[in-house]
């Protein structure tokens, strides 16, 4: 029985047009397709990666699936034939943490890694040689001692681990990035890349959002990103999901540390496990519901038209990944 397999499943994704099929990636580098209706394993693509599979996404037509890994590789596979379409080795300098697909252009996708880089790729091109764009994400969180040393030596700030990336409005223009160790998340506008060369390497973000919660942790960060038509939802390790109005975010309203313009938030209800945090969440395709996967707690489901409390709770015995 696949569900009794001792191998840890790290990530997963439902097929966009066949919800009975669910693909998971595990710690050994396997991709496994499961029939949810009959709870059985359909097939296994052994060792697509040499290390842990960190993220999986489908193209919006469901024809191709994209996976990234701790072995620094990106694999694009054909779902029906289960064959590799393309493979990009050494796509980043360290573990690739996340991948996001552009809705309107299925061949274009972006990756973020522990090397502090965001890269945009076009599967129709020779991706092994070039990216459409590469951005270095520098952390604004610097201790006083490190800041003094950096000032003395005129060094650049450290790179932030890119934990999650998310395209807004289903197009290529604007991308959001976040880190589990940085209290800022950034908006990048690819129409505003510095210089004539789109592969400039480093660009300034369009704007950023700062942490406005109660925690005093210096390096508090974010675990997950999602959006509907009007809001960006940002899951934080302080047990809250913050709801930022996209229009205000664009105009830099959330970019300063102040007590004004605080975003709404979804927080764990009274009686929930306070040591838990939102390891993952997903928003339904009709943008009506948000479901959370948590460490050491169950699944909360929220109606986004009424954010005061969840509409349902499912006990899930410490499983932390959830997806529609």
UniProtKB/TrEMBL annotation:
GO biological process terms held by the UniProt record: proteasome-mediated ubiquitin-dependent protein catabolic process
UniProt keyword terms in alphabetical order: Ubl conjugation pathway, WD repeat
One Pfam assignment: WD40
One GO MF term: protein-macromolecule adaptor activity
SUPFAM superfamilies tied to this protein: WD40 repeat-like (SSF50978)
SMART domains: WD40
UniProt pathway annotation: Protein modification; protein ubiquitination
InterPro entries linked to this entry: WD-repeat_CDT2_adapter (IPR051865), WD40/YVTN_repeat-like_dom_sf (IPR015943), WD40_repeat_dom_sf (IPR036322), WD40_rpt (IPR001680)
PROSITE patterns cross-referenced by the UniProt entry: WD_REPEATS_2 (PS50082), WD_REPEATS_REGION (PS50294)
WD repeats, residue ranges: 89-122
Lipid biosynthesis as UniProt keyword: no
GO CC list: nucleus
Record-stated family: Belongs to the WD repeat cdt2 family.
Name of the protein described by the UniProt record: Denticleless protein homolog (Trinotate prediction)
Organism: Myxobolus squamalis (Myxosporean)
The organism's taxonomic lineage, starting at the top: Eukaryota, Metazoa, Cnidaria, Myxozoa, Myxosporea
């Amino acid at each position: 029985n696949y569900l009794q397999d001792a191998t840890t499943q790290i990530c997963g994704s439902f097929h966009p047009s066949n919800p009975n099929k669910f693909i998971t990636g595990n710690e050994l580098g396997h991709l496994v397709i499961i029939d949810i209706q009959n709870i059985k394993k359909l097939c296994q693509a052994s060792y697509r990666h040499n290390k842990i599979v960190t993220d999986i996404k489908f193209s919006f037509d469901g024809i191709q699936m994209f996976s990234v890994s701790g072995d620094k590789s990106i694999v694009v596979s054909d779902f029906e034939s289960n064959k590799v379409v393309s493979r990009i080795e050494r796509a980043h300098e360290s573990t690739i943490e996340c991948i996001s697909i552009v809705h309107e252009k299925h061949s274009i996708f972006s990756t973020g890694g522990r090397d502090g880089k965001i890269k945009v790729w076009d599967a129709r091109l020779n991706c092994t040689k070039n990216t459409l764009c590469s951005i270095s994400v520098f952390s604004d969180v610097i201790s006083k001692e490190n800041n003094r040393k950096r000032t003395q030596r005129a060094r650049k700030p450290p790179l932030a681990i890119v934990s999650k990336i998310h395209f807004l409005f289903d197009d290529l223009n604007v991308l959001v990035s976040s880190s589990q160790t940085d209290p800022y998340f950034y908006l990048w506008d690819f129409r505003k890349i510095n210089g004539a060369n789109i592969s400039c390497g480093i660009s300034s973000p369009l704007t950023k959002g700062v942490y406005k919660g109660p925690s005093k942790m210096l390096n508090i960060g974010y675990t997950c990103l999602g959006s509907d038509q009007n809001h960006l939802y940002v899951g934080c390790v302080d047990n809250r999901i913050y709801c930022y109005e996209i229009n205000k975010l664009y105009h830099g309203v959330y970019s300063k540390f102040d007590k004004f313009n605080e975003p709404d938030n979804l927080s764990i209800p009274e009686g929930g496990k306070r040591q838990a945090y939102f390891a993952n969440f997903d928003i339904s395709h009709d943008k009506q519901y948000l479901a959370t996967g948590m460490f050491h707690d169950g699944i909360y489901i929220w109606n986004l038209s009424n954010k005061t409390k969840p509409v349902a709770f499912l006990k899930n015995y410490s499983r932390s990944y959830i997806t529609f």
